Amino acid sequence: MHSTVEKTTLYLSQIAISGILMLILMPIISQYLTPGELGLFVLAQIYTSTAVGIANFGMLVSYERNFFIFEKSSEDSAKLISSAVAFVIFNLSILLIVVYLFQSEISDLIFPTSTPDNLLFFVLIGAAASSLSQYYLTFLKNSGLAKNYIKYTITSSVINFIIAIGLITQSNFGPMSLVYAWIISNSILFILLFLILGRRLSVGCDLGMLKDMLKISLPLTPRVFFGFMNTQLDKILLGFIGSSGLVGVYHMGQTFAMTIFQFMTGLDRVFQPEVYRKLFSNKHINESHEINNYILPFFYISIFMALIVAIFSREFVSLFLSNEYQEAIPIIIILSIYYASLFFGKITGIQLIFAKKTHISTLLMFAGIAINVGLNIPFIMKWGIVGAAWATTISGILMAYVFYFAAQKYVKVLWQWHIILLIFSLFILGVAFALIDYSGSIIISSYASIMVKLLIILIYCILGYKLNILKKIFSSFNSFSSFSSRP
Hints:
Strand content: under 5%
Order of helices and strands: HHHHHHHHHHHHHHHHHHH
Helix content: over 70%
């Protein structure tokens, strides 16, 4: 248990440091870049990340799954990651050449306004480097080398932060300031990982292992493409129907709300490998509530983070962002529901991958895209960026519900739904108050608003105590502390 708590603490520390850097950077961006300039960079990231995702052919997912088959053999484990990386590098090289040759035509087609020279190509290089780094980071995560994982990711975040601040405030590069920071930090991260881990991981390509990974990953390729597009459809449609300025404001709100998902991802790096191990050892069959009991504290902490972000979004935006970005407040509140619901997707995704039913995910993703597009277009036309946030949230919740039933069909995990719904209902209550407080439909002083929000948090903590969840969390940390203090 102390190992789990140590890893959780380390990963959350990394998320906290990255989050603090982001919170410092966001006000600076809002002061020096217009929503339109920020929107161009955001759209470039969306399109290049989608292209890079396709070029990966879902290989990262299949590599992570097969890692646990070969983890006890250092030689086979090295062959596995080298095969995956070599395959992806080949694909990305072709993609970079094509975009370099036709970037002007592509930019005219996908961007609502003119863009700086080489914006698309440079962002693509950064996205490619980031993608390749994920294989080595996954190796570190699954190998239990949390400290190394944290060291490299924090280094990359700090480099990006320093370069972005320097260029934004001391140059006239505009949105290219973010581009240069993006490409330099991601490239340094990949080069560091490649050089350092290359000492213990052989370079080459095992065709047999590659073939086995492709059997799992190829059915995932449409899901990767459409799945990523599905998560970015709100901003893509805002760019087409509205403007890059709307994308910039929406992105600022989404970035703050996404700290919820980033927090979950920090936890995910701890519980995902363990859930895989429990599934491979048939713990979900032999002990019916084994996975539920293990996951519940992670769920409680994740929703607590979502609650904090939702109810204090108004205070953050009002204090730190310029007037051009004040409309981001309701975006943060609404999207907090969406990101909170994604916790379930982390588990159902593991279930389907474990069962080798990745094609089910792809088929369901098409349904999700249809719902997302069908809601986003009329919602954006009627309510603008707020409509985009609601459409994304509604479609996300619906698909989480559908994925749950699909995953349960192939790998049954017993959940204590009465506890989960009680926790989530209190979170929704906090979100509802935050929306009412922002809308001004009920006149309430700033002091009274803060007191109500603190009361909601207190009730949430009391609920965790009554359900014995806090006891499990504190006992885990206490055991870790006593273990760490031993001579």
